[in-house]
Amino acid sequence: MKTKNANIYLAALIIWFLIYWFLEPGVNFFVCNILGLDKTSHITETIRFFIYEVPKVLLLLVLIVFAVGIIRSYFSPEKTRKLLEGKSLFTGNVMAGLLGTVTPFCSCSAIPLFLGFIEAGVPLGVTFSFLISAPMVNEVALVLLFGLLGWQTALLYLITGLIIAIFSGYIIGKLKLERYVEDWVYQIKAQNNNLEEAKINFDDRINFGLQAVKDIVSKVWIYIVIGIGVGAGIHGYVPQNFMAGLMGKSAWWSVPAAVLIGVPMYSNAAGIIPIVQALLEKGASLGTVLAFMMSVIGLSLPETIILKKVLKLPLIIAFVSITAFGIILVGFLFNLIY
């Protein structure tokens, strides 16, 4: 890396930390002293929540997406596929789940990735571990959870998301459901790609990270603003007893109901997690909210519709049912523990 570029990156990092460090006291001063709002009113808390959380989350998102963008530069679809070739079922499920957390694939990539993995001889269950992990455990969700709810909740989400992806894929593999893949998929002959991947230096990887920030933040910022706006309204106005009764531990049916509601919905992490924060603050139980969030993010309706082109209905039902069941178990478990 050139010295000039290194100095620019270091200066940018210092500015980032200064803004993040002074953001909360700056917002409090602005709301109470500049705007002169009453600290005890609902509208004041709603405004303060919104003004503080939007820049905080965007700051975190820029930094983490940049870092993950650099990591992603080491993982092309071809490399990912080769890493999973020839692995035993459970080992492959674990590797696929881990790779899904750091690779840039979403629902729009579902069919080409599925075809590529099947053509390369990657077991069906391992392929599903990857397809579940890639959208469910992503850097946007981790950044938002870390920024809004703390590192413990972010780590909890990461671990449980991986467990669901690994074991759902493992069960699908054990059920031997290959006959429910569309026949034409297996008729495609795998083509060996002997082209050597272009070697890129660290400056190129930095540019890859910057491009990731541009691509991702430009797409999700509006969802962040809307999500935090809804969360601010819940935070300021929804009675705590109401939410605790609806999504609290005492409502045993809340976890399966949350998953049933979440499965057909479609939202990304940027839109749903600020609402999750507000629900938790109002008394909703962690397990119920976690189950709702995972069902919305992990069982994407567009991805399921796209996969219909390569999977027969019984396999799609098995995929959704097994994953949803795993999410429900996680919800009940954390309601029991916390």
Task: Describe, in plain words, how this protein is organized in 3D.
It is a single chain. The protein has a domain at 77-184 and 232-337. Helices cover 77% and strands 0% of the residues. The protein has 16 helices and no strands. Helix 7 runs antiparallel to helix 8. It starts with a helix and ends with a helix. The model is unreliable at 189-196 (pLDDT under 50).
In a nutshell, what does this entry contain?
With 338 residues, the chain is mainly α. Helix content is 77%, strand content 0%. The termini are far apart.
**Approximate helicity band:** over 70%
- Give the tally of β-strands: 0
The class by helix and strand makeup works out as: mainly alpha
Low-confidence region ranges:
189-196
Order of helices and strands: HHHHHHHHHHHHHHHH
* Mean pLDDT over all positions: 76
Coarse shape: flat
Strand content: under 5%
The N- and C-terminal alpha carbons lie at a distance of 47 Å
The biggest sheet amounts to: none
Provide key terms for this protein:
single chain; about 350 residues; mainly alpha; 16 helices; flat
How does the SSE layout of this entry go?
Elements: H1 3-34, H2 42-72, H3 77-84, H4 89-102, H5 110-119, H6 124-136, H7 139-149, H8 151-174, H9 183-187, H10 202-237, H11 240-247, H12 254-262, H13 269-281, H14 286-298, H15 301-307, H16 313-337
Helix pairs in contact: 1-2, 2-7, 2-10, 4-6, 4-8, 5-6, 6-8, 7-8, 7-13, 8-16, 10-13, 12-14, 12-16, 13-14, 14-16
